[in-house]
Every structure is written in structure tokens, then in C-alpha cells.
Amino acid sequence: MRRILRNNGGQIILALAIVMSIVILSVAFSIYQMNAGRQLLKYEPVKEIVLAATSDFDRTLTVALRDASLEFDETYDENNASIKGESVLQKWMRSAVMAFSHLGAKMEIVERKFKFSWNTPIGFSFTYADFSMDLEAYGFRGWIGRSDKVVVLRIFNGTVRKTGDNSVTLIFSIIDDGKPVPNLIPGLLNVYVWNRNQSKWDPAEIVNMKYLGGGNYSLAFSSTVNEYELGVKLRAVTPKDGIIVSACYIRGINSNEVDWGTLYLSVGEEDPNQEYLLPYSLVSFKTRQATWVISKQKHTYREIASPPIP
């Protein structure tokens, strides 16, 4: 009988040890779950805040490009356009910092750029900006995000054709952030024809415009200009965001239809009173007009006055 009691006592001690082990493991697991839950709750708000700020900044950058393109359309001064766009970004930044001030937010635009190229058959309006964000309340520091926006308008050189005494047809495309723009209407498109005799752009009447898919449009407009002196400028406004973009085509100058090398006669940056033969990338448009010098052979050339920049 004593042996049985001794055996039962050992079993009871073993059972108690097992129970205590289970209790300790349960408590440890509960503590782990609580810590993991706190970390999860801490992470989710940061993720949501960053996504919200980035999405809002994307929209702000679109507005900034719209305002900058309007300024560039009026002044043709990229510096003024950049100032206009940057003012929109800075206003948003101040508002965002105030909105997240209870989280110890620190935000700054670390880099930005506005660029417009409207003097070639492939014209674009473009901007990008990088901004940093710290949220002291969550120990979240050093994050940098980038947003960009670009609208491209292209005149397909090989499609520009005189179809009659007073009509010209062409195909063009407009792309917004890599996506075709399918709903451009004639009211959002201006067409101009280069008047060589008066050295100015004359507005042309749109006769027909048809969407072909993929952001491509066929366009017919009135023009009495000689086919070999034909110059066309398109100015479009995106239906959704109101961003202005323009493209320019002048037969024999900015196309591959003739085997001519192209230089430009323009004032230099250092001496505005001295004209130089320059490549396009170095041409100064501060005088609002340049002269194209087109050389076909070594000792022969002809000059064509460029359209004055509006």
C-alpha cells in the first residue's frame, strides 16, 4: 500500500510540473501576441499615412503641371513656368505638414523639375518631384518618394499631306502618363499654319477630327500654304486635367524628309548681340525668334526664318 501511495505521489508531482509548464508557455505566447499586435497596429497607420500622402501629392503634381503649362503657354519662359508650378507644390507641403503635425511630421520637397519641349514634332509637358517624410510619433524616418507626370503630343511627319488647294491632313497622337487620351475634342485642340510671308502662325480651321484608337487621331484642316513650305503647330489641352502641350512640324526642317543637316543661327548666352551657328540644344530663345540655317552642300545654304515663339 505504501508503495502505491509513493507511486501516486510521483505522478501527481509530474502532472503538476506539466500543468505549470503549459501555464508558463501560455503566458509567454500571450505576451508575444500582445507585442506583435502592438507592432502591427503601429505599422498599419504609417503605411496608410504614406499611401495617402503619396496619392495626394500625385494629384497636386498634376495641378502644378497644369498651372505651369498655362504659364509657359502665355510667356514661353520655362523659368516662370517652374516658379508657378513650384508655388503649388510648396502650398501643398505646408498644408500636409499642418495636417500631420500631431504626429510630429517633417516633410520637404528635395528635388523638382518642370520641362517643356514644344518646338519639335514630339512635344511634351513634364514634371517630377521627390519629397521626404518623417513621422516622429511612429519613429518613421528617412522615407523619400517620387511622383511624375508627363503629357506627350506627337505629329507623325510622314502623314502630313496636302489633299487639295485648301486642305491638309495628318495623324497625331496624345498620351497622358503612358495612357492614350481617347476623348480629345476639337474644342480642346488649336491648329496653326506657318505664314512665311508675314513670319507668324495663322490659326487654321479644323474640318474633321476622328479618333483612331491608341491615342491616335486623324485631322483635316484648312490651309492655302504651299506644300513644300508647310508648317503646322498643334496645341492641345488634356480633357481630364487641363494640361497644355504643343508640337510643331515644318517641312524640310524638323523632319527626315530631306537629307539636310540642320544648324541654327541664334544669339549666344554670353553675348546677346552676337549670332552664332549652334545646334538646337544650345539655341537661345530669349530673343523669341531664331533663324534656321539649312545646309545641303558644303558651300550652299538657304535661310528660313523660324516661327516667332508665341
From the alpha carbons, calculate the radius of gyration and give it in angstroms: 33 Å
Describe the biggest sheet?
A: 8 strands, antiparallel
Quantity of strands, as a count: 16
Structural class by SSE content: alpha+beta
Please characterize this protein's 3D structure.
The protein has 310 residues and is an alpha+beta fold. The chain has three domains: 38-152; 156-250, Immunoglobulin-like (Sandwich), CATH 2.60.40.10; 259-310, no CATH class. The chain is built from two helices and 16 strands. The protein has helices spanning 2-75, 78-99, and strands at 105-117, 122-135, 140-155, 161-164, 167-176, 179-180, 189-195, 200-204, 206-213, 216-222, 231-237, 244-250, 261-267, 275-278, 291-295, 301-305. The strands form three sheets. Strands 1, 2, 3, 4, 5, 6, 9 and 10 form an eight-stranded antiparallel beta sheet that branches. A four-stranded antiparallel beta sheet has the order 8-7-11-12. Helix 1 packs antiparallel against helix 2 (78-99).
